């Protein structure tokens, strides 16, 4: 290596004397030419305190016991009485003889020349670490570090300058990014890597290093400019995100994330399985894609008011799958804020209400309702029995008998409803594959009702095209039987009339069943109790039948609506998802 190409003071020497010096060294020590310093001991330009340490190091270098050595020392300079420098020494060969090459890095002015070249104080005080490495020297020492580097690593300038950046590496530093930096420097190319480094106190941090080659006037790369950024927080966030994604990917519960505007940015596999929408279909849309119409505007106004205030929202809701099937779920939405308290994301977690939970609700309501109704009927019968036993002449025996028969009929109806509920529970608990029901098979259920009630005029219209079927045929059968029985039993007309219409809605892939009667209107209060899902005892066996219908349709993922049948009666419309029946 030609020392004249170095911009730093440098000498070639043995343990006894200087063999050659470049002009920068001559200027540093006040010599006019290299001839003025050759043949002189290097120690003659140093103070006594530094000489013994250097002598030992030089002997080790010449004996090839060390590849390099670095010392902070004081040089006798001409521009001032003395200057602080770091001497970086390495063995070399000069004129066929083993020699030592020593380069001096002046640190007495905080490496002002380099700082000035890079931009002065602004670079020194930049919030990231900035370094300059001299690649013309074998071990590529640091010749400049800014305050950001000092703050990040804990090493002072005196401790870092003159050393190769490898001193920041440690046990957990991976070889791969180090090798990439080495290859880039050898190829005189820029490079960016992320690796674990260690501070002076031994603590680990993640360092993002960007290296760029710097050329001199003749195009030779002489330095590398480095930008070093502590990305430990980012890596910790990435680790937390990875753990979150691992949990989310494996979770059985639906999980999705929206931005502050409500646009879906992430869905987990459970979301895809439950809703039928793929991630590609969901991302970029809003959760309104799952809106079943069961929740009104007031519900969503309260929802947004709560989460926009940074509070968590939790509620039981009804969503709609891609197939049109509805499902009940417990949804919990939590806002995620940044350091300034600004909401950035919303995380929604949904836990579908399982068949076991629905079964528990069925049993709870059954217990409450039946206990209430049976107790009432038994109390009435008992009271009339005591009245008959009294033998009072004022008792209208026929009226009492009629009342007892009415209550007995009520108990019989309760018994029949209990049987239907037991069947529904059995279907909910079954592990067997569901039996599909083609829509045209609804005719047999209607025909059975006709045979049981010959005095009832039942009209059936089936306009279902294709091979569509309802997946859980047994559950639909329970619902349809209850709809027909409810329309028959509570009809007070001399000739009860029931109209059954079965159609398909092509745009939603749903079956639509409409049962209209000419009986008395179903009380709105009872209907609201059924729709709300409250476990409230009902005063009429009519309510029990409506419960059975509601549970059955809910199990099918369908909907049920009540409307007046003009000029008199009720019109109940049921929609349930369809599947393609095998031909």
UniProtKB/TrEMBL annotation:
Keyword line: Chromophore, Flavoprotein, FMN, Kinase, Transferase
Gene3D superfamilies: Histidine kinase-like ATPase, C-terminal domain, PAS domain
EC number of the protein: 2.7.13.3
SUPFAM superfamilies according to UniProt: ATPase domain of HSP90 chaperone/DNA topoisomerase II/histidine kinase, PYP-like sensor domain (PAS domain)
Alphabetical list of InterPro entries matching this protein: HATPase_C_sf, HATPase_dom, His_kinase_dom, PAC, PAS, PAS-assoc_C, PAS-like_dom_sf
Keyword Transferase assigned: yes
GO molecular function annotations of the record: protein histidine kinase activity
Highest taxon listed in the record's lineage: Archaea
EC category name: transferase
Protein name: Sensor box histidine kinase
Species: Natronomonas moolapensis (strain DSM 18674 / CECT 7526 / JCM 14361 / 8.8.11)
